Amino acid sequence: MARLVMKFGGTSVATVERIKNAARHVKREFDAGNQVAVVVSAMSGKTNELVAWCKEASGLYDQAEYDTVVASGEQVTSGLMAIVLQEMGMPARSWQGWQVPLFGSDAHGSARIEGVDGAGILAGFDRNREIAVCSGFQGVNPRTNRIVTLGRGGSDTSAVALAAGLKADRCDIYTDVDGVYTTDPRVVPKARRMDKVSFEEMLEMASLGSKVLQVRSVEIAMVQRVPTYVRSSFDDPENPNPGTLICDEDDIVEQQIVTGIAFSRDEAQITLRRVADKPGVAAAIFGPLADANINVDMIIQVVSDDQATTDITFTVPTADYERAKTLLESMHDIIAYQSLQGANDVVKISAIGVGMRSHAGVAARAFRALAEKGINIRAITTSEIKFSVLIDAAYTELAVRTLHSLYGLDAA
Ligand code: ADP
Ligand code: ASP
Ligand code: MG
Q: What is the rounded CA–CA span in Å between residue 396 and residue 346?
């Protein structure tokens, strides 16, 4: 007997018919004698609709009420899943975040999980192996008693945190692809499914744009040692494939230099021309952006030839682009730059692999390959196990495919 958490994403619960199909996967595990907690997302598209309603109601909506609205999508699917499981003859009940309870910080819209109390769910397991169907994405703040949500894609994090809280043997993330691929299979049909991927690489891939798992879920899986699989809810419930295991680097026998390519359209570029080249200028620019909670990612400062002025280029999330520009324009006199240029039709392409630690020249090969395709690089960053380039968005697919082949990742 094992204890399992099974998470179903938006496309896997998009209709009552799909919920019935997901329930057949649950039945397989239940019939095998396992204790099962299920975590569900909202029906696909639902959360976007709820977010749009908040924006329509007010340009400056109350974040706590936003959470009340957007958490409702998961309440619907948890109830429906419980009804379907009961209909199929299994003991089941729904659990909202506040009922579990799953505690979250008061950062509405992007709360961090502070703890999960699994006692109620465990009592149900002991009583009659009752299946706990939990609403993903939501929790409660223990101090304010308000509903909080965990950020977009947060049901992955609910599932892994619940698995840790229940000391589950495994967390299975069921989605619309049968595992983690070397890059988004929707963009590169030649992408390959991996049997295993290391925590470190998955963390980088998720934070650099591979939305197959929310970054926080990978962090929790890594720190709390939760064996986590990504697998397909569209497999035959009687004969499913195991999917991709996220695991320790040491458990992977054959290491590639580059294991995956990720891309993010969530980047915008800002360039300040002819900024005074003197001590304190970077602080004058990036201090106020940090105070305004705007995350700066890539930064390039050009060495000036006149020793008096320099150009500084950096990227911010698309959602903060207008805010960042307005802030910098309001500080024109203090920072003393000649002009501000911006672009949000850019994309960040990244290559990830633990093998980069021990191999030189990995990024240089990419620069050459992109140049041969006529793709101009606007900015570059590198770190221990990844490098990223910022390019025009129009070249996204060409660049991803070029790097995917370059590093030998294409399926035969
Ligand atoms: P869910 O609704 O189940 O949470 P998501 O849409 O959040 O599903 O995540 C699954 C999607 O992630 C896939 O349909 C795929 O297009 C995308 N994706 C991006 N990068 C990858 C990758 N490296 N491997 C697999 N899927 C990826
Ligand atoms: N429903 C939420 C979202 O769309 C959470 C999730 O699906 O993981 O972001
Ligand atoms: Mg998701």
A: 9
List, in sequence order, every residue forming a beta bridge with 198; answer none if it has no partner.
247
Token output for 318: 């698309």
Flag whether the pTM goes above 0.85.
Answer: yes
Residues with CB under 5 A from ligand 3 (ion): 9, 153
Total residue length of the chain: 412
- What are the boundaries of each domain within the chain? 3-249, 255-411
Residue nearest to atom 9 of ligand 2 (CA): 152
The residue type found at 81 is M
Say whether 101 sits in a helix, a strand or coil: coil
DSSP 13: G
Buried b / exposed e over 134-147, threshold 16 CB at 10 Å, is bbbbbbbbeeeebb
CA of 87 to the centre of ligand 1 (A): 30
Q: Which fold has domain 255-411?
A: VC0802-like (3.30.2130)
Alpha-carbon gap, residue 344 to 181, rounded angstroms:
27
Q: What are phi and psi of 192, to 5 degrees?
A: -110, 140
Question: Given the CA of residue 205, which atom of ligand 1 is nearest to it?
Answer: 23
Q: What is the whole-number distance in angstroms between the Cα of residue 185 and the centre of ligand 1?
A: 8
CATH number of 3-249: 3.40.1160.10
CB 36 within 8 A of CB 4: yes
- Ligand 2 pocket at CB < 6 A: 9-10, 41-42, 47, 73, 136-137, 152-156
266-279: average pLDDT: 92
Banded pLDDT at 5 (limits 50, 70, 90): very high
**Same topology between domain 3-249 and domain 255-411:** no
Query: Whose structure tokens read 């690089």?
Result: 377
CA of 176 to the centre of ligand 2 (A): 14
pLDDT of residue 279: 87
